[in-house]
Design goal:
The chain is mainly beta. It has a domain at 15-80. It has no helices and six strands. The strands form two sheets. The chain has a four-stranded mixed β-sheet, with no helix packed on it. A two-stranded antiparallel ribbon has the order 5-6. 11% of the residues are buried.
Length: 111
């Protein structure tokens, strides 16, 4: 499933019973029969927090999430001075797997 991801399971339930939210938006899997689960499109190190919500509070994030809702969020802080910062990482593994991830923040004090 995907390059290297797994389909999360909470309380024995997965798939459509679990919502994945990134920065306020619902992310869906690709292809039929969940060939690529929503987590295949998430690079965890690009996010600042991960929250797992279970129980009746999950309805705050839409329907169809009887197992849980997983929320990935970034903290958008105002820059104290103009500049650019970020990180990059690369993965080379067996089965000809190669991936590159970058996360860059740039701006001024006003933007």
């Amino acid at each position: 499933k995907g390059a290297a991801s797994s389909d999360p399971v909470f309380r024995g339930m997965a798939g459509s019973r679990l919502n994945i939210i990134t920065d306020g938006g619902l992310i869906l899997g690709g292809c039929g029969n969940r060939m690529d689960p929503p987590t295949a499109y998430i690079t965890p190190q690009s996010y600042d927090s991960l929250t797992v919500i279970k129980g009746p509070q999950t309805v705050l994030y839409g329907s169809g999430n009887s197992a849980a809702t997983v929320v990935f969020e970034r903290i958008n802080e105002r820059l104290e001075q103009s500049g650019v910062s970020g990180f990059a990482n690369a993965v080379i593994a067996s089965a000809e797997r190669r991936s590159l991830n970058t996360d860059i923040k740039a701006g001024t004090q006003d933007y």
